[in-house]
Amino acid sequence: MEFEVIKLKTAPPEEVVVVNGSSWKCPVYVRRMPPCRSNCPTSEDIRGYLTIVAQAKENNTPVDAALDEAWYILTDKNPFPAIHGRVCPHPCEDGCNRLYKDGSVAINNFERVVGDHGLKRGLKLRMLTGEKRDKKIAILGAGPSGMSCAYQLARRGFKVTVFEANKQTGGMLRYGIPQYRLPREILDAEMQRVLDLGVELRCNTKVGVDIPFAQLRKEYDAIYVGIGAQKGGKLGIPGDGLPGVMSGVGFLHRINSGENVAVGNKAVIVGGGNTAIDAARVSRRLGADVTLLYRRTKNEMPAIKEEIAAAEAEGVQFHFLAAPVSAEAKGSGANAAVSLKCVKMQLGEKDKSGRARPIPIAGSEFTLEVNTVLCAVGQEPDLEGIAELPNSSSWIVANAIRETSIPGVYAGGDAVTVDIAVTAVGHGRKAARAINAFLHGRTYKEPSPPRPVKHTEMKLDYYKDAPRNDAEELAPETRIRGFDEIHKTLPLDQAVEESKRCMSCGLCFTCDRCRVFCPREAITRDKKSPVGQKMFSDYTKCSGCHICAEVCPSGYIEMGMGL
Description:
Blueprint: E1 3-7, E2 15-19, E3 22-23, E4 28-29, H1 35-38, H2 46-54, H3 63-75, H4 81-87, H5 91-95, H6 107-121, E5 136-140, H7 144-154, E6 159-163, H8 172-175, H9 184-195, E7 200-202, H10 213-219, E8 222-225, E9 231-232, E10 245-247, H11 248-256, E11 266-270, H12 274-285, E12 289-294, H13 305-313, E13 317-320, E14 322-330, E15 337-350, E16 356-360, E17 366-370, E18 372-375, E19 379-380, E20 391-392, E21 395-396, E22 409-411, H14 421-439, H15 476-479, H16 492-499, H17 513-517, E23 523-525, E24 535-537, H18 547-551, E25 557-558
Parallel strand pairs: 5-6, 5-8, 6-7, 8-22, 10-18, 11-12, 11-18, 12-13
Antiparallel strand pairs: 1-2, 2-3, 4-25, 9-19, 14-15, 15-16, 15-17, 20-21, 23-24
Helix pairs in contact: 2-3, 2-16, 3-6, 4-6, 6-16, 7-14, 11-12
């Protein structure tokens, strides 16, 4: 009997034996997608950077060296781990299979540890090539999307110039997110690392105003538009233009630019998103009694749940099922106030967003006497001077790989649709890959992601219960006195313990159960092999009993197809 050994495409390090053209009923090692990664808009190798630290001691690797490698794994997809370890609402944790046991892995806390470690160690972003290419790319906007795209193109050897309308990099990370959530020294340091790759930065340069968009199309081989959505919406009611009524986006921009903005003793914030919550919490720090007015219920608020809870703890009052209908000035000068007439609402049928439509209740009007009204009911990109970009109702239109209908012009981030910062980073990375293909005369095709491994395909009982390690935070009564950072970074020992809570969904973590339980002693272990590739099966000994697949906790071993 002759055996033909072939390599599996799904798991290159492993082998399968084929007998007379048919495989045995032997185990097949199939690297599966962990659901944390499939939930991450940047597709970070979360399992990879967790397990490299979790197995450091077993592999005789110093923790610092393991964290170095974790940083390089993470920044391959996302160059801003210290930033996102602070501001990301971690959709990855919603996908974590450990939720079905004792709570998701604190991935966001761990990412912050890795990011801060990289800053402390002065780690540099890795290039993908030493070759310098003569093609030039213009990036519009130095926010998370634009700088992500700049990073991925610069590391591929392209000449990249970033045009930024504001004085500094960061986009909404700088001008929208308050310092108590994201210290500016962290933001500056991670943005600078991208510039250190040779990226040219031109601040105070608004494309379409200071330089024509048509000129960029002539001078550059490709363009990426990541200008964000920094134009605040209006209430659309009588009195919208009063001095005491301003947009939440504009308010945060002024505060984060260092201006002293007086909100008075009482402020009302209208809206239920992240901008509304940030504006409310900043107003509390400026000494105001704050009421957040939202036309639906708490359950429908799109803001990050942890931020809503933090606002409540800091004394922000919530008035649900209510909306403003008009604003009237009261007094003048330093004593100016705003009389905000509101109406109570009730929820009706679902609208296009899938949420119940708020309907005014006749005769339920009431009035709030305040000093400041901050409108946080929406935002959109500022297309002044670049209206020739393909757009729909002020939003730039791009396809799945970030192409617009103009050849060589790509777009992403909040300029396309308002979302979280990590989504913007993912857009920038995807656009960079598409631009790279375009400049090489190819069309980029997004690969189909592998099927995520489900908790029902794992043996959760194998894993020991382990409490989640959450970061400490300042008490509400302390933090509202200023803009000091609220959350602390996990201590190193807790971060290591948290990494060990990762169940390595869909990949071997050397639990040894397959080897121990194999009745034919067909499985061996090679400690020198890379993480996830240490177990090997001798298919000449395998009887196809499937015990190894039955006892594998992580869902990495699948049963063969049979004769």
